[in-house]
Amino acid sequence: MNVSTPAATAEHRATARRLLGEGRGGRRERAAAAVRAVLRDRRGAIGAVLLAVFTLMALLAPWLAPQDPKAAGSFSPDILDGPSGAHWLGTDENGRDLLSQLLLGAQDTMLVGFTAALVSSVIGTTVGIAAGYFGGWTDRVLNVLNDWFLVLPMIPVTVLAASLLGNRAADLPLGRTSVLILVIGLFGWAGTSRIVRAEVLSLKRRAFVERSVVLGAGRLRVIRTQILPNVMPLVLANAVVYVALAVLTESTLSYLGLGDPDRFSWGGMLQAAQDAGAMSSGAWGYFLAPGLGITLVVLGFSLLGHAIETRVDPRLREQR
């Protein structure tokens, strides 16, 4: 019979810490190599450039915008004008500069997209790891919950939820924008959970995970140091693609009048352009600019997401 002595236990723990440290260093190198590979992919490079442009547009919007559309002096008698030297994209039905609205609208669109994807990824990753790693009744209960969220129709459910919660938005930091973030994030995690669970079921049988358990690492430590880092590439790829869906959903909800009326968004601009009859008035910048912005943002996230998926899934690389 083998009896573990304190010295042997300490040696095992030191070995485990050394192996985990080496694993973290190797993961950093692999992550850097993966980023370079994604950027070498034409789709990934185009997507990264598009997202960099729109992210900078959102961050620098207060300084790039020619005027503050909410200021009293921003209203002029030139309503629904086409592009001109004074107003590059024209003016709206109140005579306000459309370029300023487009730049400020990028803030809400990108904020909702990134934040909703973060909420969705955190919930989906947590549920997927818990279901795959612990198994048993935990897996069965979480699978039922996951399947229920998977079959929910995204747009009708988010429209209903945003309508019901919109009246309580006044107490939230970003008003109705906070409601859109929560609704889109809370109803979009099931796909991430399913992918993470399948990967965890494979990972927990791998030799390096079993070795960590034998060396005395607890469940939470194994999850934090072995499981989570290895599922993060899949989570990242899925999150990037989900940002595109979140942007589309936010634009749809804003277009339907469920956005924050005190903030500018591209979906809200499209709704205002339709209500003002911009298309028949020749103010094409009113509807074309936000529509093109939504299209390019979604295209950028989709291209980058597919490039990351190609990198993390060997089967997709073989098909190229």
Quickly count the domains. 1
CATH architecture: Orthogonal Bundle
Find the CATH topology.
MetI-like fold
Distance between the termini: 55 Å
Mean pLDDT figure: 83
Individual helix count: 14
- State the secondary-structure class: mainly alpha
| Multimerization state | single chain
Largest sheet: none
Shape: elongated
Q: Outline the low-pLDDT stretches.
A: none
CATH top level assignment:
Mainly Alpha
Report the strand count. 0
Beta content: under 5%
Identify the CATH homologous superfamily: MetI-like
String of helices and strands: HHHHHHHHHHHHHH
Can you give a write-up of this model?
This protein has 320 residues and is mainly α. It has a single domain (29-70, 85-319), classed as MetI-like fold, CATH 1.10.3720.10. 75% of the residues lie in helices and 0% in strands. It is built from 14 helices and no strands. The radius of gyration is 24 Å and the shape is elongated.
Provide a quick synopsis of the model.
This protein has a single domain (29-70, 85-319), classed as MetI-like (MetI-like fold, Orthogonal Bundle).
Topology (elements, then pairings):
Layout: H1 6-40, H2 42-59, H3 61-64, H4 98-134, H5 136-150, H6 154-165, H7 176-186, H8 190-203, H9 207-214, H10 219-255, H11 266-276, H12 278-281, H13 284-312, H14 314-319
Helix pairs in contact: 1-13, 2-4, 2-13, 4-5, 4-7, 4-8, 4-10, 4-13, 5-8, 6-7, 7-10, 8-10, 9-10, 10-11, 10-13, 11-13
Main attributes of the structure:
320 residues; mainly alpha; 14 helices; elongated; MetI-like fold
